[in-house]
Automatic annotation (TrEMBL), chains A, B:
This is Asparaginase. InterPro entries: Asparaginase_II. It comes from the Bacteria. It holds the Pfam family Asparaginase_II. It comes from Bosea spartocytisi.
Amino acid sequence: MENPVLAEVTRGNTVESRHRGAAIVIDAEGGVVFSAGDVERPVFPRSAVKAIQGLPLIESGAADRYGLTEAEIALAVSSHSGEPLHAETSLAMLKKAGRDAGCLECGAHWPMGEAAARALAKSGAEPSALNNNCSGKHAGFVCLSCALDEDPAGYVKQGHAVQQAVRGALEEVTGAEHSSDRMGIDGCSIPSYAVPLKALALGFARLGTGHGFGPERARAAARIRAAAAAHPFMVAGTDRFDTRLMSLLGARAFTKTGAEGVYCAALPELGYGIALKCDDGAGRAAEVALAALIGRFLPMDESTQVAFAPLREAVLKNWNGTEVGRVRAPAG
Amino acid sequence: MENPVLAEVTRGNTVESRHRGAAIVIDAEGGVVFSAGDVERPVFPRSAVKAIQGLPLIESGAADRYGLTEAEIALAVSSHSGEPLHAETSLAMLKKAGRDAGCLECGAHWPMGEAAARALAKSGAEPSALNNNCSGKHAGFVCLSCALDEDPAGYVKQGHAVQQAVRGALEEVTGAEHSSDRMGIDGCSIPSYAVPLKALALGFARLGTGHGFGPERARAAARIRAAAAAHPFMVAGTDRFDTRLMSLLGARAFTKTGAEGVYCAALPELGYGIALKCDDGAGRAAEVALAALIGRFLPMDESTQVAFAPLREAVLKNWNGTEVGRVRAPAG
């Protein structure tokens, strides 16, 4: 039984490419609102669960101890484009904990944002770990480690106190076992555990409502959501999908992309969590598939609908600026 | 009936992503050697058919009239990375026809090769149409137009003599109708026509053998194949798959990637043509799927097999250089 098509890519009047996948919308008590495809198969959530991974930073008191700002908390749950403000903010977080970029264990890469990468190249500089799209999360890990009075060295390893706290939060919030048998190493070197989409959606429903959380965790979740809503640029960057979505919808949608076609979201006013993965790992498909689900369930006034339309259906242009096709959820 | 998985992406010991698609291997008389998935559904070949699109450049006498070198002929059937040698060679072709880069109608984009793009940015320059991955093909179109005594202006349009010649060659070589109903606009602004994979594979079997061609076309096809085998860098660029394949296999394999997960190849000594498309348009999957088919049919000595192995199975590393997974054809 194959997963359904979540997104199609047209050229002229022909469908050129098709993206299959699975998606689920669930409420915080586990009631399934929508389900398509195999939502029980374990998938690596990758960066889509950074907000859950960020809970210990708040709950431990580290964020308050080091006086992290709302923008810094947003960056701690981001996959940012490595633009100057992102890199500077990561460094500021590290400095608040008395550390510097030398502590980061995520590795260096050229900014994910192409314009930022070219600007950095033009300046003659080389990228550092601060430009890594995960540097905000890693700066948060370093802050957490310091607040726990643990040496940050090796904080990416499965056995380090930071990763144990992160894994504990993931298991509690999603309700799914995070098994070493289903562990992979993420792009930024921390463990990623494959769990069912259904558990990820439930985790996001809880994250969006606090339902099933103790008061401290509920406050931490609300603080992270508020930070992302107030600083959507920090969560991703220029022209990025999360930034566009949350700039438009504010606190009504908390969304987070993950590598290999994963997307998770919470729609707090509805109490819904969403999780989807495109089988083939395509981000372009995950984006329009997520927008289709948000558009299906979240009421929007007319002007919001108009602004939302390009998120649901992306226009593909060629190098002369001529429209050649679309990326969209299939009709019906 | 869904297409089979042509490539899978692992992380740790888990399959993280899967790419479905269709593939066919056929001989020059149309005998099917291998077939998987729906090979009758029309697909846009995109840049995979540049060698067929390049036949009129040779057959018209334009290549000889302007004294195009073997390297320039290779560039005329390339999707190059926009590296300096590619851009310079495109310009040299245009100058031989008494033209310059202002004639190019492909649009400008940053070099497809990331290192080349950053080097260009570092130099303070902006990309021109010469950096467009199709600039060699377009320079060939301008040469063809001039040799036909046609004004090159508008050479990308369906009605221009250049595109009529190209469409004619495509129809004759593949044996498939290239219908305006199945036309899309390619990234470089020329028409692309969706045709069955089976027809594309047949076209490549003919291109690799000359079988079914008149002597002039057979010579033109052989000249293009020889140019690519002698100048694999010109066909793609640094670290690119076509360049790696043809650098290793020489004239034993003529391969050409196309956007949205298409790959075509000819294995002249076997008389086989290959065409495949990943449903989702993923290039990473098309690459290993093509390598799997070449590896299945083309005999290789032991040292070639060793060098070929990384083409069949790509290692994915994270930003710290740690292996995190593989891209490969599924076992069995």
